[in-house]
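Entry for calcium ion complex. Fields follow.
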Amino acid sequence: MVGCCQKAGQQQVLNAPKNEGKMQQATRNKQLRLALWLSFISRRLPLQLLCITAVTCLFLPSDPIRAAAQEKRPNILLIVADDMGWSDAGTYGGEIFTPNIDRLASQGYQFLNFHVGSMCAPTRSMLMTGVDNHVVGLGNMTELVADNQRGRPGYEGRLNGRAVTIATLLNGAGYHTYMAGKWHLGYTRESLPASQGFEKSFILAEGGADNYEKKSYTPTYPTPPHFFDGLKEVDLPSDFYSTQFYTDKMIGWIEANKSDGKPFFGYLAYQAVHMPLQVPDQYTRRYLWTYEAGWNDIKNFRYQRQVALGIVPPGLQLTTPPIIPDWNSLPEGERRMDAKRMAVYAGMLEYMDMSIGRVLQYLKDKGMLDNTIVIFMSDNGGEAHELMDHFPDYYAKNFNLTYEHLGQRGSFVEYGPAWAGVSMTPFSNFKSSASEGGVRAPFIVSYPKAVAVGQRTDAFASVVDVVPTLLQFAGVKPSSGSAPLSGRSMTALLTAESAQVYPSDASISQELSGGAAVYQGDYKLVRNIPPYGDRKWHLYNLRADPTESKDLASAEPGRVKTMTEAYAEYLKKNGVIEVPEDYDIAVQANRNAQARH
Ligand SMILES: [Ca+2]
């Protein structure tokens, strides 16, 4: 009978009319929480105790977080995809087969307006600490650090110790802490995961690497990549494939300690779908036919699907940079190669989704899934950069670039700006820009005990909000000896107590490598450097204009002034050193790489 109530409660939320009053929504959410709680209790108590329990429930805290925590502290599984686009998963409009990510969304909370840094390591530094990247040592990518930033506090290129990681806090509170995958936050002894609170770790130190062997993927990393098992640098097994290996590691650690009564925090940071794009060939083959349709049609398909899902507004004018040719204007040989490059990307992403499914199925089989907070996200927008254009001789010499080998061991594949634009439908620009195409990321939270089921939100939220949220769910306080948290807890939103994370008049700023953005309510003030912008501020109303196509800066000078003042405060508060006027990412990257040779 209680089981019926749970189903009915969930169905009510899924079918809630959009114009429903706030009071009705609050009442409904209380009913849902009570139903979930009763269902939870009923699975653990004899029937004769149920009546007493039901009465007692009326006097328990209405706060579902405390109610859940009183029973057992939650496990936490934090899954991060690398360079995955906002629209790639099915639940965000994509045609790629991602049933496990989609199921997480349908059983949890899907964010439509979640923001990250525009590149890997800064996002990850905020994800691990909850503190702005300029405070904790990743003020810029170490590969891109400007001459005026080098050696300055906040630009160490590794976690600098000013903030304690969530792994350290949770481990200190009795959690097992595991990390498998890409770290990218330094590999000095004190900055490795093993020194940052993770009791078990197997990591790639650099920003990327080959997925099959210990091999660099770019001449800007002149030495082979570094992998660490704890504090020990190690070689890779001969049958290594990154996604499979990291998944096995995570499941193995959870399994080894599952019976000792301690909860776990698992950080699963896949190399997928960062270049080089690689996956077992059968996954690529599934998509060859799909992408022969070309990037124009696929982008339009995704947009129409997003409109049908109700996650983006209809009537948008999708923007395509002039450097991207019309698909039908390409010679057949180029179309064939480009279709396969995207097929490898899609296959690699599907393999990752399948692997996420393996972990979730394992947790379900062991009866642990209901008590696990699962987060899935990407760390930045789709990657448009084409290294093969910059270093053609290097790739011709070190990789097999034939059509037949694309995606396999020994090959090198990047998917380029046209497909990156598809990945970021409907937004403009890409990874490393401050446009939404660089900083809007998929973000899903599932936690059946406390998080509302089957919900979507367009509330603004950011990567710095993850740590305060997880600490609150786990009942763990931030460290008094650490830099203060930069974000806000999302728990009130997730448990349907509030419709927002930030008040609508709050200003939230970010900066990376000269790109900068300030968010306030529906508005965004943004500045990009070439090739993504003109170094000037532009103002957009993101709700009406998510593609950032209608600049309102000259029409609303007052708003621009308020937001630039908020940005100036942000710079001061976080010790940001802005890049010089003539800073150029490609020139700086080459100069820094030469210095490392
Ligand atoms: Ca990335």
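NOTE: Residues 435 and 515 are 8 Å apart (CA to CA).
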